[in-house]
Request: fold
Amino acid sequence: MTLETPGDAAVRRTSSSLVTLAGVLGALAGCATAPIRPAEIAHDDYAYAKRYLTWFIEQEMSKHDVTGLSIALVDDQQLVWARGFGFADKEQNLPAAAETVYRVGSISKLFTATAAMQLAERGKLDIDRPLATYLPGFSIKSRFSEAGPITPRTLMTHHAGLPSDRLKGSRGRNPVAFSSVVPELSDEFVAYPPNFLFAYSNLGMTLLGEAVGQVSGLGFSAYVERELLQPLGMEHSSFSSAAEAPMMAKPYDRGKPVEEPGIRNLPAGGLNTSVLDLSHLLAMVFAGGRFGAHQLITEETLAEMLRPQNADVPLDLDFRIGLSWFLMPMGLQNAGPVVSHGGDVINYHSQLVALPQHKLGVIVLSNSASSAETVRRVATESLKLALETKTGIRQPRQPDAPSEDETPPSAEERRAVVGAYVTGAGLVRVTDESGELRVSIAGKVSHLAHFPSGHLKPKFKLWGFIPVESGPLASVAFSVANLGGREVLIGTKNGQSRLFGEKVAPSPLPPELDRYLGTYELANLGVGEWPLVRSIRIEYQDGFLLADVAGKSSEDLSKIVLLPVSSHEAVIAGLGRGFGETIHFRTVGEDAIVSYSGLELKKTSKR
Reply:
């Protein structure tokens, strides 16, 4: 049961918003002297950028226990800097290099979308026709009678309303072909109607890749190899279920070598490549779809891929996406459009960011489970310095947030806010205690401050009495609104508003579901499969039917709210990735069975 949403990790990890003594000491221990900044950075002289970034990367790797990392910085058609840090294979004393190959996860989606757009240019695929036109075996149920069709365009923008994943068989030592997913969906339900909101879906991009394979007549991997990887000169890149290739970096977790499971969904995350090879993709973007002698896509098609596709979707607020390209600032100001995609698998993390207006881009890849934040910070810092070096545009000092005096909320304002909210951080509860708003997030209770602007901010206290003003929530202001017929919680930071959660009301437990309360263990784990969910506990508390996923804490962070829709089905409450999806209940003989995303769990104990 998926809880993460790309781009929301910092907000979702609410428990880390509390400053701890260990964190303070760790930050102090990581201090070292940065290279002296020149009074003025010479135009197109990347010497200082390289010195500073070398220091910055080494600091970040030490702080987050990152074993290996590679970076490439691209200025139009020129590779201005590419090198590795740490180790590709620590046991063999093999250093990471620019040529080192990594599993890049969801950066793969850029190639899948580009392949689909190539076929569209050739008249073989219309991205606005129903997907079933090109994938005849595809069908999925819907509870939305007036919804429009699922199309290749909605797959590329993650607005198809599909479940985020098909977990059964998605990872393991010998995953089956991803084409096997298509017939399995006929008994499943969409989570939302198309174009209702952004909900990231690996399943959707996997289906698009299967359509590419069928329409081209070559199969997905063979088509992408012939039409993209070879023309781009990506000689050391391949789509493979295993994280194995010549010059492949080994995966690590906290400095120790670990196993990276194979992946079924190649179009969504199966690319193995290097920063050198990926720099060719950036060069192609900066050249209007051309690389060397090959015009891979037209300039008009590229412009469409980089055009915001979701400006008319109310629930997306300030979030923007093109055709698989994310179009968000990423902390960069005065830089023109920022286009990007990241990738996260278990032990590899990656980030690709580009500034098309200035023809600057960076790729950062790592082989460590702990490197997700590092690759994003390094990418952003690299582009800030590259932009200043090439154009003289220096990032402005982040202004202090305007101070507001807290004001007591009115009775009407308190009534509007009080309630329970389903978020990626779990079930958030707001209560009114004698006129004071209190909020419980991930098991931590705090005062919820109210300001004249209408915004709300949690005011946590360390050890119960020291006010905390740092952490990912410190600069986020919250508000409640009705959007698309839903009561939602909105988070605003640096002028950007994003959906944070949805309000849910308690309700009685339907009698027919009472027998399904209890603990369940995974019952259909295949040979060599990687168990993404081992067990869950279904319980009814305080008016909510909850699923508690094994491996999480007993705090609200692990609780998933279920909304019954029939005597044998419930949907996961909330908005976004992993929410809106269907849980099935059934009885086989004396056994109670819960199924989700192809996984079947058998009841092993009562409530």
Remarks:
- The chain has three domains: 1-41+404-505, 85-391, 511-605.
- The chain has a mean pLDDT of 90.
